[in-house]
Amino acid sequence: MHRRPAAPPSPPAPEPRAALRTAARVSVALAACFMVLLVLVALRWHPLLAADSRVSRATHRWAVRDHEVTQVFRVLTDWVWDPLTMRLLAGAAALWLVWRRAAWWTALWLAVTCAVATLVQQSVKAVVARPRPVWPDPVDSAHYAAFPSGHAMTATVVCGLLLWLLHRRGTGRALWRTAVVAALVSVVGVGVTRVWLGVHWPSDVLGGWLAGALLVAVAVLVYEWPRNVRTRRPRRR
Q1: pLDDT tens across 178-228, in order?
Q2: Measuring CA to CA, how many Å separate 108 from each of 104, 113, 169, 174, 224?
Q3: For the chain, what is the largest distance between any 2 Cα atoms, rounded to a whole number of angstroms?
Q4: 86, 98, 139, 148: least CB-packed within 10 angstroms?
Q5: DSSP3 helix / strand / coil % (the chain, rounded to 5)
Q6: How many CB atoms lie within 10 A of CB 198?
Q7: Cα within 13 Å of Cα(15), Cβ side
Q8: Which residues contact 58 (CB under 8 A, 6 or more apart)?
Q9: Integer Cα distance of 206 and 131 in angstroms
Q10: Model's pTM, two decimal places?
């Protein structure tokens, strides 16, 4: 009788802690960047204020001169990339996860992260209490304090979470590229509109981007942590 050759050893399983380590490193880096910017804004560091003023004066001149572009930007910032629209998008994604995937934990994680982002945004605004730009001929108006930009932060959180879910669950190349482009256009575009319309300083938008990305990284840590603990737990014999 001929013996069957031994089966080759199976390839090692992918490292379960890779996503956790990456999210932790990104969280630390983003937290450091955001804290530096927060301190500079709170202390009213002159070089930062001067740079904000130069950019804002230039974009305000363009906004007053180019009425058509300004009107388009107002529609985009008030309806397409508005925080309420972004939260509704996240809510629709959460409902889809429950209805089609029965992914209750993921849907709850998505909804809670968006709620925490709103709470953090309003708390930082209240603590820093940075005044918004004031113009003799404003083209738009906004409420509450300036730092960080709620539009920029909300768009970053929602787009970042949805992109991560798509990446984690696997999707076609065409859909993934489309989603990445849409997310980048939304996150960058909403920041541009807020500065163009004269309701935020550029550093407010940068702060919104950093805070939003930080919350996404922390949310990934929270999501992956239980899975990592289960993987490391020794099996009972």
Answers
A1: 999 999 999 999 999 999 999 999 999 999 999 999 999 999 999 988 766
A2: 6, 8, 17, 28, 14
A3: 96
A4: 98
A5: 75, 0, 25
A6: 24
A7: 6
A8: none
A9: 16
A10: 0.89
pLDDT, residue 12, reads 41
How far is the C-alpha of 219 from the C-alpha of 2, rounded, in Å? 56
* Cβ-based neighbours of 161, under 8 Å, separated by 6 or more: 90, 110, 113, 114, 216, 219
pLDDT digits (tens, 9 = 90+) for 31-40: 999 999 999 9
Write out the two tokens for 223: 């999501």
19-40 average pLDDT score: 93
Separation of CA 77 from chain center = 16
Q: Cβ of 51: how many Cβ atoms within 10 Å?
A: 14
Question: CA 173 to CA 177: how far, in whole Å?
Answer: 6
What would you report as the CA-atom Rg of the chain, rounded to the nearest whole angstrom? 22
